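User: Quick sanity check before I run a bigger batch. Here is a single chain. Can you write out its predicted 3D structure?
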Amino acid sequence: MLEEAWELTTSGRPGPVLVNIPKDIQQMEIGDFDELMASNKIRSNYVRHRPVKIRTESLADKVYEALRTSERPLLLVGGGCIISPGAVDTLRAFVNHTGIPVANTLMGKGAVSEDNPCYLGNVGMHGTPQANLAMGRSDLLLAVGARFSDRVIGDPARYNQLLDKNLIHVDIDIAEIGKNVRPDIEIEDDAADFFKKMLESPLAKDFVKDWQEWKDQLADKKNQYEMLKQQMYQPVTPLTPQYVVHEVASAVKGTDPIVVTDVGQHQMFTAQHFPIESPRSWITSGGAGTMGFGLPAAIGASDAAPERNTILFTGDGGFQMTIEELGLLKDLNLPVKVFIMDNACLGMVRQWQELFYGRNYSASLLDNNPDFCMIAQAYGIPAGKADDPESLQAEIAKALAEEGPYVVHVMLNPGDNVYPMIPAGKLPHEIIMPDME
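Assistant: Done. Predicted structure follows.
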């Protein structure tokens, strides 16, 4: 059973596997262990990964033909491009070879260098305007390792109804292909193998297409958004989440930190404003969206790579769900720098109640938050509070100078919302932009 569990967790679509050994089995008396193991060949009925039916080689010519005839292509990369061994290198080589505009889902962040001129940012509910423009207006969408969840396409029925493009869906899990969107070309393959075969195809050598008019449109939208972000990064009191994330990112730029988030508004602000320098350095809870994920995940990441700084952004709500793990953090003395984004509410819940439920706030306001610095110090972890630009700069410096853990209690304006935003069930062109006036 343990061998099977290992096979399941490392093959096909990698992921966690639960092995449940009942107490009576644990206490069972056995005879010859080797004989028992030799005879115990019973396996579960779990459907394991099987060889793909439609490999890339047979369809590479169709993919290149679709690229050649397209005027507005987009490559969408999901979490599958992160967890597939070797996919990042072949993906980046494919982007550099073709020059195709590329965007990522939340779980695909870090797969493509954010300095690459082809990179558009995150797509979906809190994605960038340029990435969502491409999602809406592209005439060819090549999606690799992405699930097309509602956070990416909104209402699947509406998206399919308005889908006027050539869609190629590549995924190792056949159950994901066609589940939410209707592809024109289905490729059941590993992300690394797909990009490798595309680069090795005889058609790759002579492929030339610049898509310059399309790229110029996307670049204009990207430049407009960059100017808007510069307004968000102005130092003001009360502190804004965008400014805080940007300042922390600027302070550690070039050091390749591991960036971890909990779940909520701060998660989206971090995804929007913290560039990831290398793959597998962005750790967040996507599909499940489990509040309380941040601190335990940061401890695990730092324990695996203690030579790197681990930056954790967490909310005042999510942090209190696993706050007791400060004890473990102190015991291990790991270099986790914790930034608690305290907006005195469950920010994402409050934002939805404000925008879509007539400001009827229910179970979302946290009016009696504790002093997180005192709690951290009670565990023996140094901590400080930041409530204006000057104190934030001082606390960032202290946190990075500390060899072990450090907690920064950041006081924010409770009314800040996450924008850009595509409301639930809406389409990419129905994006709401921030009002900076």
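The longest strand covers residues 336-342.

User: Great, the batch can go ahead then.
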